[in-house]
Design a protein that fits this description.
The chain has 548 residues and is an alpha+beta fold. Helix content is 26%, strand content 20%. The strands form six sheets. The chain has a six-stranded mixed sheet. Strands 1-10-9-8 form a four-stranded mixed sheet, with no helix packed on it.
């Protein structure tokens, strides 16, 4: 593949000279986000923006993901591990309004308030009264989150959670500018529009200044950000290109410095791309799976659901279709996560699959009522769906129709349970098995299976009450085995992250949650490709400088 760029090196895939200013970054975010509201967002494209425009009590270290001070400078923890007291640094919203502990109280109460309708309301169930509030059984102001004064926040948990501080860096726990929402409401403006560039007020390293629907967004450095002096980029341009092949070609031409964490590389080019120095691959805490709407016939029968799972040759899928080093798996929780021992369920057993289908009353599969598999626009999702469609036809004699949908339509249909089988991926919000297992709880807004079980819910609650880490993991494993016997979803593989990053872009470190804050990135103007030594020559720093 060639391009008429200003400077090109055989070591790198495309141009190695920026097409823009030295303090500007051009990236892709794959598609139009559903929400940029921290309390309502539940998709990765929206999350990418929120992580870079808002900041919570703690931040995740860009390489290790270790929780570090952010808006909170330090904290105290009670002896029983259930009460945390956070001390906030003096900081401001992007409009100059002081940020206080009340902004966090407002945000977290809003998260669990049933009127908000947050898919991530379950994240707030860790707080005292969170679950009761979401069910309408308690007043919002009874939530276990209190402002002791303008710069001191106290949080009371239901159970001591080993992953709590890591979890706090997630965007659901970002503060919300209460003064802005109140002002919009007084002016008769729809408060759902508060994240539009003409209204938005944020507290992160960057603020949005322009949003061209389904084209691009523009962000500028937030001069009110407490750590603005360490932010080297002045401007970030974020495109919304859904096609991974188009995004790759734009990268070659220098229109993207980094296709972004939400953009997958085309599987058919993987063997070619991995020879270049700007190709990067690292482990990723994510599982690719298919939701099954368990109330829609014929998939209301668990025998059929299990047959569908066992008829998928996952090893062949990752070797010949996805081709990015993914690990075929029938488990929901990745093996080894925080000491968790995976179930190691069979990844392919067509004989057992046919037996289960026959037991369900469809020995040849041909009489099975029509089934449709939905996926959002992406060459990769389409290729996976076509491969599995062929496997189900070959192994079970089942004809499955494929339905491609635009991202926002796809998310709306998932939320309304308007599907039979639907593609989904889940990236762990923190390094603990519960981040995956919570998906199947009865009160989880991201549970799109229509399956629920009091037994399953009780097992998870029992696990989180345990102080013994090994016993807790044992109970969580029991819960996963119980749920996958019912097969409300079909896990396919554990992700790896493969991406292209221009060699002059510094400040991106591989980590298992694929979080890459723009605040740590910069353009290395001194970069020069050294063809003879096959190594980049750079005079810029490469160390991580985290200001606490």
């Amino acid at each position: 593949m060639t391009t008429g760029c200003q400077q090109q090196s055989s070591l790198y895939f495309g141009t190695v000279e920026p097409r823009h200013g030295p303090k500007e970054l051009w990236i892709n975010n794959s598609s139009e986000p559903e929400w940029l509201d921290p309390g309502r967002c539940s998709d990765s494209t929206g999350g990418e923006i929120i992580w870079n425009t808002f900041e919570g009590l703690v931040q995740a270290h860009p390489a290790t993901l270790k929780p570090l001070p952010a808006i909170a400078t330090h904290w105290d923890i009670s002896d029983d591990g259930r009460v945390y007291r956070f001390y906030l640094r003096p900081s401001f919203w992007s409009d100059g309004h002081p940020l206080t502990a009340d902004d966090f109280v407002f945000a977290l109460q809003r998260l669990v308030d049933p009127q908000t309708g947050s898919k991530y309301a379950s994240n707030g169930f860790i707080f005292q009264q969170g679950l009761a509030i979401s069910r309408g059984e308690a007043a919002v102001n009874t939530l276990g989150v209190r402002a002791l004064d303008s710069h001191t926040l106290e949080i009371e948990l239901v159970d001591p959670l080993p992953y709590f501080l890591n979890f706090l860096s997630f965007y659901s726990f970002m503060p919300i500018p209460q003064h802005l929402l109140q002002n919009l409401e007084k002016r008769g403006i729809d408060v759902d529009l508060w994240t539009r560039p003409e209204h938005v007020v944020c507290n992160g390293a960057f603020r949005m200044t322009d949003w061209q629907f389904r084209q691009h967004m523009t962000f500028k450095k937030n001069t009110q950000y407490w750590d603005a002096s360490s932010v080297q980029l002045d401007r970030v341009r974020v495109a919304m290109v859904e096609s991974s092949t188009t995004a790759m070609n734009m990268y070659v031409a220098g229109e993207f410095d980094w296709p972004g964490g939400s953009t997958s590389l085309p599987a058919e080019f993987m063997d070619h791309l991995e020879r270049y120095k700007d190709f990067h691959s690292h482990p990723y805490l994510g599982v690719y799976f298919y939701w099954i709407n368990t109330t829609k016939p014929p998939l209301d029968d668990p025998l059929i659901r299990r047959a569908l799972s066992l008829a998928i040759d996952r090893d062949s899928l990752v070797k010949h279709v996805t081709r990015g080093g993914q690990i075929g798996s029938s488990d929901l929780v990745p093996d080894g996560l925080a000491g968790y021992e995976g179930l190691h369920l069979p990844v392919y057993d067509p004989v057992e699959a046919r037996r289960l289908l026959a037991e369900a009353g469809y020995p040849t599969g041909q009489d099975l009522p029509a089934v449709t598999l939905s996926f959002n626009t992406s060459e990769g999702h389409k290729q996976v769906a076509e491969a599995i469609q062929a496997m189900w036809q070959q192994e079970l004699g089942i004809t499955v129709e494929l339905e491609n949908q635009e991202w926002k339509v796809f998310l709306a249909n998932a939320e309304q349970m308007n599907f039979q089988i639907s593609r989904m991926g889940w990236i762990g919000d923190y390094a603990d098995p519960y981040t995956f297992l919570e998906l199947l709880t009865s009160d989880c807004g991201n549970n799109h299976s229509n399956w629920s079980s009091k037994t399953y819910d009780a097992l998870l609650e029992e696990a989180n009450r345990h102080n013994d880490p090994e016993e807790r993991l044992h109970i969580l494993r029991q819960a996963e085995a119980f749920a996958l016997e019912e097969q409300p979803l079909i896990p396919l593989y554990v992700y790896t992250r493969t991406q292209l990053i221009k060699p002059y872009v510094q400040g991106i470190w591989g980590n298992h949650q694929d979080r890459h804050p723009w605040k740590y990135m910069w353009i290395d103007e001194s970069f020069e490709p050294d063809e003879e030594n096959s190594e980049p020559v750079s005079k810029s720093r490469k160390d991580i400088q985290v200001h606490e």
